[in-house]
C-alpha cells in the first residue's frame, strides 16, 4: 500500500502488480474509490482487515466496466458500504448479468481472469449527479460526470486535498507517459470536453486507475495525444493499418510492452478509435 496524500492510500488490487489502483480514503467517513475487478476483492478486503477497517461508508464506482466496478458488490456486502455510481450504470451494478455476457464477448478469457461481478440490492446503490458533494468530514468529495471513455463515467475530486480520481477518462500511465483509453463506443468530442473541464480545476495530483499517480500536466499531455491519435485514425481503414500509422506518428507507443495488460488496453483503444472517427 502506498501513501498518495494525507489519509489517502493506493492499494495494488490485482494479482498482477502495477495494473489496477484502488484508493482508500481513510477519513472519518471512509470511502473506497475504484473497487476494480471481482477477483481482486479479496486482496482489497485483506488490506482493509490489516488496517482494522471493517466498515466503509461508500464505494465510489467510476464506471461499470468489469475492471472498474466488478468488485463493488462483493466489497459492499462485507463492509456495509453504499455504492456510488452514475445513474446510467446503476442497473448493471445491481444486476451485472447482461454486462457480464457482453464483457465475455469483448474480453474473452480475460473476463474470466477478472471474475464475474456479484449482484446486489438496488437500495445499496446511490446514483450520483454531476457536481454532487459528499461530506467526508476530513474532506469533501465531488462527483463529476466525465463522458467520453464511457457515457456512464464519473470522476471524483477531493476539494481540500485537490486530488482527482478520473479513472479512464484521462488514460493509462506507462513508464512516465499517459496514453488515451478509447474503447468502443468512444466519444471523441465528449472526451475532449471532459479533459478541458479537468484542466480548469485546481488539481495537485491525479490518481489514475492504470496505474498510480501523475501531476496535473498529464491532462494536457493526454489531450494532445488523443487529438493526434484521432487525426491518424481518420486515415486508417483497419486495426492493423491504424496500429502501424500510430506507431509512426507516436513513437512512445513502443513503451507499451507487447503481451502486457496495458497492451491489451491499447488494442481495445484502437478498436474504439476507428468507429469514433466516423461520428
UniProtKB/TrEMBL annotation:
| A GO molecular-function annotation | hydrolase activity
Keyword Hydrolase in annotation: yes
Query: Residues in domain Metallo-beta-lactamase?
Result: 18-210
UniProtKB keywords: Hydrolase
Record's protein name: MBL fold metallo-hydrolase
- Which species does this protein come from? Archaeoglobus fulgidus
Q: What is the lineage of its organism?
A: Archaea, Methanobacteriati, Methanobacteriota, Archaeoglobi, Archaeoglobales
Amino acid at each position: 500500500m502506498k501513501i498518495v496524500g494525507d489519509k489517502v492510500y493506493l492499494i495494488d488490487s490485482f494479482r498482477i502488480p502495477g495494473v489496477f489502483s484502488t484508493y482508500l480514503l481513510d477519513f472519518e467517513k471512509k470511502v473506497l474509490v475504484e473497487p476494480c475487478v471481482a477477483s481482486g476483492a479479496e486482496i482489497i478486503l485483506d488490506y482493509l482487515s490489516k488496517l482494522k477497517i471493517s466498515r466503509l461508508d461508500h464505494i465510489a464506482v467510476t464506471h461499470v466496466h468489469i475492471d472498474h466496478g466488478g468488485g463493488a458488490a462483493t466489497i459492499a456486502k462485507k463492509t456495509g458500504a453504499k455504492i456510488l455510481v452514475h445513474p446510467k450504470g446503476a442497473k448493471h451494478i445491481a444486476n451485472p448479468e447482461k454486462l457480464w455476457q457482453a464483457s465475455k464477448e469483448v474480453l474473452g478469457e480475460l473476463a474470466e481472469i477478472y471474475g464475474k461481478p456479484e449482484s446486489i440490492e438496488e437500495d445499496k446503490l446511490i446514483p450520483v449527479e454531476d457536481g454532487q458533494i459528499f461530506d467526508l468530514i476530513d474532506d469533501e468529495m465531488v462527483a463529476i460526470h466525465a463522458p467520453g471513455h464511457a457515457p456512464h463515467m464519473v470522476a471524483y475530486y477531493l476539494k481540500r486535498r485537490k486530488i482527482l480520481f478520473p479513472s479512464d477518462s484521462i488514460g493509462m500511465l506507462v513508464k512516465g507517459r499517459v496514453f488515451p483509453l478509447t474503447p468502443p463506443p468512444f466519444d471523441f468530442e465528449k472526451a475532449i470536453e471532459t479533459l478541458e473541464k479537468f484542466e480548469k480545476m485546481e488539481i495537485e495530483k491525479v490518481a489514475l486507475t492504470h496505474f498510480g499517480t501523475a501531476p496535473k500536466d498529464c491532462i494536457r499531455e493526454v489531450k494532445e495525444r488523443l487529438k493526434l491519435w484521432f487525426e491518424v485514425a481518420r486515415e486508417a481503414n483497419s486495426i492493423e493499418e491504424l496500429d502501424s500509422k500510430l506507431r509512426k506518428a507516436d513513437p512512445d507507443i513502443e513503451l507499451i510492452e507487447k503481451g502486457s495488460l496495458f497492451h491489451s488496453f491499447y488494442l481495445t483503444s484502437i478498436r474504439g478509435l476507428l468507429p469514433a472517427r466516423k461520428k
